[in-house]
Amino acid sequence: MKQLRILLLTLIVALAVSSLARAQSEEPLAIIMTADGTIMPPMLEYFERGIKIAEQRGAEVLVIQLNTPGGSVDTMLQTIQVMRASTVPVVVYVSPKDAIAGSAGALITMAGHASAMAPKTVIGAASPINGSGSNIESTLETKVKETLKAKARTLVEDRGEKAVKLAEAMIDDATAATAKEALDANLIDFIADDTEDLLQALDGFTVQMEGGSRTLNTENARTENVDVSFIEQLLMMLTDPNIAFLLLAIGVQGILIEISSPGGWFAGFIGAVCLTLAVYGMGVLSVNWFGFVFLMIAFVLFILDIKAPTHGALTTAGVASFILGALVLFNSPGTPQFQRVSVPLVIGMGIFLGLLFFGILLIALRAQHRPIQTGSEVLPGKTGTAQTPVAAGMDGQVQLGSELWSAEKSPESEPIGKGDLVQVVEVRGLKLIVRKK
């Protein structure tokens, strides 16, 4: 009887667990992603991974919480293509409060199957800039703007004339709009305080997918976050212009130290690693490579001031060349503000490198004026011990420090016996001339 009760209890628990699991599996799933930063290739990889997870999990909706000042036009177009090809509805949500969907972020928001903004957020200012960091020629500027405007029209043409006009103004005149202004123009679908509020608003909302319309069921939806991976975080960090600048400065300095003082491996290894990471970041950022020439000139001047001391003149010129090169490299006209390096950081690093090489210069100068510490020139006057008798016409051996020397008695010295203390008078080739001390 007792065994029967245990069996029944086990069945009841199993049924309860099964029922709970089934009820949970029947709840709609909402995948939540957080895209905070510039629109660069690492961000695209994050989007692709999130969409793939949402499709594999059979999610009802994928919500991208977006906060970006903008980014690469090419990456933006690839992101839009990936989002529109998703079999899971993608909702772009500009959040949290005070966030911005600027430049490329504005078109990504328009590309969502549905779009929303949190209160006190801003969207727009989508005028294009040249990826090389220089001013766009008028003809090229017109072509790029017209291309982006055509892309924007394809994304918002179903939203009405006001939405199209606002989208075009964002590209032509760098217009920005608040959440309420965007909603009034029907550029977005909702204003939501948070993700929970957004999911409630999405319940019953119909979106247009490639395969046709779909009505969303997000009531009581379970949410799962897809966080940025470590590798994605690292790659995003490398696209920060300040980080790329620091890596470049450390990398070139390490390589030049290794070249000027070969034999060690640490400085060269660190320099090679930092330089490789910096090149990746600069390959993604809008940089003017002409500035790299000034940076190389700066480090050459630093090294020359060490090899042929000019009392700091070349180091001072190197600091000026370093600061100028960094500003040309990262802060050329046409480079967007979010891709510019901090000017105080550049000046501070330039002064730090100047002081560092000036310190090395002082050490080199002191070394030149320091008395000779080794070699035959410093042996006269040193004291040693005779290991054998040293007499006129008969060479002996003298222990001098840890070295055993062949020795000859000087004419004015007394006879030297084994164990006597001797003083070096002169060095002739490999033989010491000594006298008894």
What does this structure look like?
This protein has 437 residues and is an alpha/beta fold. It has 3 domains: 20-232, Alpha-Beta Complex (2-enoyl-CoA Hydratase, Chain A, domain 1), CATH 3.90.226; 240-369, no CATH class; 376-436, Nucleic acid-binding proteins (OB fold (Dihydrolipoamide Acetyltransferase, E2P), Beta Barrel), CATH 2.40.50.140. 50% of the residues lie in helices and 18% in strands. The protein is built from 14 helices and 16 strands. A hairpin with a 2-residue loop joins strand 15 (421-428) and strand 16 (431-436). Helix 2 (41-57) runs parallel beside helix 3. Residues 17-24 and 130-137 have low confidence and may be disordered.
Question: What is this structure, in a nutshell?
Answer:
With 437 residues, the protein is an alpha/beta fold. 50% of the residues lie in helices and 18% in strands.
Question: Which key phrases capture this entry?
Answer:
about 425 residues, alpha/beta, 2-enoyl-CoA Hydratase, Chain A, domain 1, OB fold (Dihydrolipoamide Acetyltransferase, E2P), 5-stranded mixed β-barrel, 14 helices, about 50% helix, about 20% strand
**SSE succession:** HEHEHEEHEEHHEHEHEEEHHHHHHEEEEE
Number of strands: 16
By CATH, the architecture of the largest domain is named Alpha-Beta Complex
Query: In order across it, which strands form the biggest sheet?
Result: 8-5-3-2-1-11
Give the count of helical stretches: 14
**Mean pLDDT across all amino acids:** 82
Percent in strands = 15-25%
Return the structural class. alpha/beta
Distance between the termini: 112 Å
- Assign a percent range to the helix content: 40-55%
Shape field: elongated
CATH topology of the largest domain: 2-enoyl-CoA Hydratase, Chain A, domain 1
Q: Which residue ranges are poorly predicted, with pLDDT under 50 across at least 5 consecutive positions?
A: 17-24, 130-137
What's the CATH superfamily of the largest domain, by name?
2-enoyl-CoA Hydratase, Chain A, domain 1
Output the radius of gyration. Answer: 37 Å
Query: What is the name of the CATH class of the largest domain?
Result: Alpha Beta
